[in-house]
Amino acid sequence: MRTVFGYTVIALLLPVAVFLFYFTNAEAHKVRSFDEVVDEKIVIKDVHLPQASKMVDKDGNPYLEIHQPYRIIADGKTIPPFLKELFLQSEDKHFYDHSGINAAAVMRAMLVNAKADGIEQGASTITQQLARNVYLSHDRTLVRKVSEVLYAYELEKRLSKDEILNLYLNAIYFNHQVYGVEAAAQFYFQKHVNELTKAQMAFIAAIPNNPSLYDPVRHFDNTKKRQERLIDMMQREKFITAAEAEEIKKEPIKLQVRDRIDKYASYSTYVEDELKRLIAKTEGFDQQLQNAKGEEKTTIEHKLNDRVQEVMSSGIVVHTSLDPAKQRQAENAVNSVMAGSSVQASASVIKNDTRDIVALVGGKDFDRTQFNRSFQGFRQPGSTIKPLLDFGPYIDTTQAGVNSMVSADKYCVRGWCPKNYSGKEYGMVTLKTALSKSYNTAALRLFIKTGNERAYSYLEKFEFERMTEKDRYSDSKALGGFRHGMTTLEIAGAYTSFIDGTFTKPRAIQKVTDRQGNLLYEWKDEPRAIWSKATTYKMRYLLADVIQNGTGKKANPGTAYAGGKTGTTNNTRDLWFAGLTDQYTASVWVGKDVEGSIRYLEKYAPNQLIWRRIVR
C-alpha cells in the first residue's frame, strides 16, 4: 500500500518538478551579473572635456578666446611628473592600487558623517572626482554619492589609470572659470604647464582642494600656506629632500594673472556668424533649412545651434583675415568723424588681392552686445547701386564707351517720374558725367535700355541676402529702392567686382583647425565672372572720375588709384560711399538706427571722410 502511494505521489509530483525545473531555468537565464546591470544603467561614452577655442588674426595672433569654461587640454606627456605626484599624494595616495573606490577611506568618512548627522567629510578617489566633474553635480547628497561610485566603477573598467589621471588633471577647477592644469598655468603665470617651477606647480596644486578659500587672487596667503603644506608632504613621502623643500618654499611666487583676450568685437561677432554659416554649409544644414518649413525648420535650427556650440567647445582655432592695424584705423575713422553725434555709422574693408575681409566696424563706439550694422544693418543703398545695376550692365551689354551719350532730362516709367537731386534737367550728357554727377534720370534710362531681367541678372550674382521677388520686378531698384536693402559688407563685396571683373564672396575665415593644426573646415568659393575686361576698365575709369571731379571729391585719399560712388536715399536718411583703391575695397554707411533725416550732415559728408581715412 505504501509503495503504491509512493509511486502515486511521485507521478503527481513529477510534472510539478518538470515545471519547476523549466521555470527555474528560464528565470536563471534572466538573472544578470552586477556588471551587466551597471553597464546598462551607467552609459559612459568617450570622455570629451569642453575646452577654450580662439580666433587668430592674419599673423596667427589671438584676439578672442571663446571659453565657458576656460580649459586647454594638456597631453599627459606634457604634464610634469612632480605635478602629477602632488595631486596623487594630496588627493588619492592609493590611486594605482584601488579599482575606483577606496573602501577604507569610505568607512572613515561614514563614521565622521554619521556622528555629524550629515556629510562633513568626503572620501572620493581621483576616479570618483573625475566622475563627479564630468557626469554629475556637486550636490552633497547620498544619491549623488552612490551615482559617483557607480560611474567611477565604470570608468575604471573602460580606461587605464594613466588615462583617468590625465583626464582628472584636465578637468579639475582652479577658480575664475579656469579648468585643468594647463589653463591654470597660463591663467596664473602665463606659462605652459611644463614650464612651471616646482614652487609654481605646488602653488596651483593648492587651489582645487577649496577653490574659494585658496583663490590666489583674493586669498594669496591662504594659497601660499597650503602650497607649503604640500611641499612638506612631498618631503615626508621622500619625493624631495629637506633642503630642496626649503628652497622651493622660499621661491617668490609672482602672479601674472592673464586677462581674457577679447578685442575687435565688430570683427569677432561677424566671425561667429560666419562660423555658423560655414558649419551649416559643410555639414548640410543649409540644404536642410532650405527644404524645411514650420516646426521642422525650427528643429533643424536648434540642431545647428547645438552643433555650433559643440564645435566651439572642442578647442578649435578659427584662422581669420583680420588685419589689426586696418581694423584700428577703420574704428578710429568712424569714432573720430562721428564723435559727438547721435548718428551711427558702419564700415567694411576687403583686401583686393585675396578678397578677404580685413576690417569691420559695426557702429560708433561698438561693443559686443550691440547690433552689428556692418553685416546686420540692411539699408537702402541709394546711388551706390548705380554702377552695379545701371552703368555696369549697360556698358557690358552694349559695349558703350565712357563718353557715350545719355539724356539726363525728365523721364517717366509706368507713371513713376523720378527727378535728379537738384530738380534740374541736363539734356544729353556723357556716361562719365551722368555717373560723376549722379543723375537719376540718366541712370534710369540706362537701366531700361538694358532691360530689367538682364540688368537684374548681374545683381543676382552678388548673392545679396535680402533681395526679394518684389525687388525683381520693381523699377525703383534702379535708383536704390529695395524692399530691405543691403549691408556695407554686401556692397563692399559687390564693388570688388571692379578689381578685375570677377566676384568671390568675401570671407573673414580662412580655415578652422583643432589645436593640433588639423583642418576641420574651410570655404571652397570659386570666383565668378561678372564684367568683361573692357567693362571693368571703363567702370574703373568712371568711378575714378566720381572722386576726381564729381560727388565724391571729399573721399579722395590721394592714392595711385581711387574710384567710388556716393549714395543718398530719400529725405537723406542714409549716406553711403563705396569704392576701391589699388589695395582695398570698402564701403561706409552713415545714418540713424531709427530712420530719420540727416540732411544737416550732408555737406559735411561724413561717409566720404570715413572712407578716405580708412583706405589711405
TrEMBL record:
Highest rank taxon of the organism: Bacteria
Predominant location: membrane
Subcellular location: Cell membrane
Catalyzed chemical reaction(s): Preferential cleavage: (Ac)2-L-Lys-D-Ala-|-D-Ala. Also transpeptidation of peptidyl-alanyl moieties that are N-acyl substituents of D-alanine; [GlcNAc-(1->4)-Mur2Ac(oyl-L-Ala-gamma-D-Glu-L-Lys-D-Ala-D-Ala)](n)-di-trans,octa-cis-undecaprenyl diphosphate + beta-D-GlcNAc-(1->4)-Mur2Ac(oyl-L-Ala-gamma-D-Glu-L-Lys-D-Ala-D-Ala)-di-trans,octa-cis-undecaprenyl diphosphate = [GlcNAc-(1->4)-Mur2Ac(oyl-L-Ala-gamma-D-Glu-L-Lys-D-Ala-D-Ala)](n+1)-di-trans,octa-cis-undecaprenyl diphosphate + di-trans,octa-cis-undecaprenyl diphosphate + H(+)
Domain Penicillin-binding protein transpeptidase: 346-587
InterPro entries attached to this UniProt entry: Beta-lactam/transpept-like, Glyco_trans_51, Glycosyltr_51/Transpeptidase, Lysozyme-like_dom_sf, PBP_transglycosylase, PCN-bd_Tpept
Start and end residues of each Glycosyl transferase family domain: 64-235
Pfam families: Transgly, Transpeptidase
Keywords on record: Carboxypeptidase, Cell membrane, Cell shape, Cell wall biogenesis/degradation, Glycosyltransferase, Hydrolase, Membrane, Multifunctional enzyme, Peptidoglycan synthesis, Protease, Transferase
Protein name: Multimodular transpeptidase-transglycosylase
Taxonomic lineage: Bacteria, Bacillati, Bacillota, Bacilli, Bacillales
